[in-house]
Write a structure and sequence with these properties.
The protein is globular. 28% of the residues lie in helices and 15% in strands. Strands 5-4-6-1-7-9-2-10 form an 8-stranded mixed β-sheet, sandwiched between helices. A 4-stranded antiparallel β-sheet has the order 12-13-14-15, covered by helices on one side. By secondary structure, it is an alpha/beta fold. Belongs to the sulfatase family. GO terms for molecular function: arylsulfatase activity.
């Protein structure tokens, strides 16, 4: 008997895109017409999270399908080898797919393909790969395809730092070269070239892995002009907050806080939104190419991000935090008319999803076996029946110095524990989605908080850091960003 035809699969991965900065998510300012179209033709998972919300740890969950204590990366640390036995691309390759990644991988070494047949790499600005002490072949200027291409086209001195903006900065200004040289355009260009040269006899898996809207906020000027004169919704500030860290660090351009200057905060919003709309239009180019090459109807598209961006909410900036701006991410599945006939278009699933779920979901779409080591959940049954109940809660965390945190999130609320200080917070997300009111001291919530705390204790029991003795949480324990199993060996 002939095997059913396998659909083509495209994973559109973004970097640092928070869940609410999309038109289909109801944002009052950000315009994303192409992503809105994908959402209208598919299923939106509006309670998707990144359980360890920074670049490396989040991508470990994506590529292995494992939760953070199993893949071993619970914070940010460069130069730790990736040697996992089962990866998403490797399993799809075994299932008969030709696998290609274009854009960001953020693995070690830089040219580690993680089972992809081919990678055209651009990891953005990686400090650890640019230092003078880095060996020649491990230098980002050699190993990164976009940097190599940029220098070939614009000269040896060309660099993404020519704007004067750091890769973790809240500063914003338009791209200084022609738009066609922007890294967002480059990912689409190289993805289109892959579609041109693919083997038409084989299904393909393309991971189009965009760098933006991760800083630098440097979209082409056209996109800045869309937002410059707009009255933007201000950042969210709760009644529980202090400006202690903002006063201490708010003049540092790569700070973990937002800027102390409100005008710089507005400029950061403009730059971030400009990067998102630029990204959306480049995704539109990819979609149009699928239509023109008569591939769209036979293709499944999964769209998501590795983590979010606080964008000055709660006086904070960047990621690694337990709050919604940092850890709540977009995730949707859209499909052409010839594939996934059970998919419910224009629907929303409110069950909690996580990046570890991407690998088993794509393997299921491909008709491939899911390795036993995978912790993630196949989302296809939820895509076919969005009202069905899946995961009811999730444990998230991040090693982050004085701000190291653990959290339990459900479909209606969130409990946070800061592991260095012992501080606790509790938010009712169903009534307070932007975490403006900390209810940790509320008598009416005491029983519920105790239940969520017990879930966290159970999640941390047996961990090497010693966060709990099985009955209570223990603060002040050493919390390195990688566990002994982080290399995957």
């Amino acid at each position: 008997m002939d095997r059913p035809k396998q659909p083509n699969i495209i994973l559109i991965m973004t970097d640092q895109l928070r869940w609410d900065c999309l038109g289909y998510a109801g944002h009052p300012d950000v315009k994303t017409p192409y992503l809105d179209t994908l959402a209208s033709r598919g299923v939106v998972f509006d309670s998707a999270y990144s359980a360890c919300p920074s670049c490396i740890a989040a991508r470990a969950a994506l590529h292995t399908g494992r939760e953070q204590s199993h893949h071993g990366r619970v914070g940010y640390e460069d130069n730790i080898p990736w040697n996992y036995h089962h990866t998403m691309a490797e399993e799809l390759s075994r299932a008969g797919y030709y696998t290609q990644c274009v854009g960001k991988m953020h693995v070690h070494p830089l040219r580690n393909y993680l089972g992809f047949h081919n990678v055209e790499l651009h990891d953005g600005y990686l400090h650890s790969a640019r230092y003078a002490s880095v060996p020649y072949r491990e230098s980002q200027f050699v190993a990164d395809d976009y940097f190599y291409w940029l220098k070939e086209n614009l000269g040896v001195s060309a660099d993404v730092t020519d704007t004067g903006i750091d890769c973790n900065s809240y500063l914003a200004r338009p791209w200084m070269h022609e738009e066609k040289y922007h890294p967002t355009n480059w990912v689409t260009d190289r993805s289109l070239d892959f579609l041109r040269r693919r083997d038409p006899r084989r299904p393909f898996f393309l991971m189009a892995s965009y760098l933006r809207p991760h800083p630098p906020f440097d979209a082409p000027d056209y996109y800045f002009r869309l937002y410059r004169d707009m009255e933007l919704r201000p950042p969210f500030t709760g009644d529980w907050e202090t400006d202690e860290y903002l006063r201490r660090d708010g003049r540092i351009f790569d700070s973990k806080t937002g800027p102390a200057d409100p005008e710089l905060a507005r400029q950061a919003q403009i730059g971030y939104y400009a990067c998102i709309t630029h990204l959306d239009h480049q995704i539109g180019r990819l979609i149009m190419a699928l239509v023109e090459q008569e591939l769209y109807d036979d293709t499944v598209i999964l769209f998501t991000s590795d983590h979010g961006e606080e964008l000055c909410d709660h006086h904070m900036f960047r990621k690694s935090r337990p709050y919604e701006g940092s850890c709540h991410i977009p995730l949707l599945i859209s499909a052409g008319k010839n594939v996934l006939p059970g998919l419910k278009p224009h629907s929303v699933c409110r069950s909690i999803a996580e990046l570890r779920d991407v690998m088993p979901t794509l393997l299921s779409i491909a008709g491939a076996d899911i390795p036993e080591c995978v912790d993630g959940m196949n989302l296809l049954p939820l895509a076919e029946n969005p009202e069905k109940t899946g995961r009811s809660w999730l444990h998230g965390e991040h090693s982050y110095g004085e701000f190291s945190n653990h959290w339990i999130v459900t479909g209606k609320d969130k409990y946070i524990w800061y592991s260095q200080t012992g501080e606790e917070q509790y938010f009712r997300l169903d009534d307070d989605p932007h975490e403006l009111h900390n209810l940790i001291g509320s008598d009416s919530c005491r029983e519920r908080i105790g239940y969520l705390r017990s879930l966290l204790i159970n999640s941390l029991t047996g961990r090497p850091e010693g966060f709990t003795d099985g009955t209570r949480l223990i603060s002040g324990r050493p919390y390195p960003p990688t566990l002994p199993n982080a290399s995957g060996i």
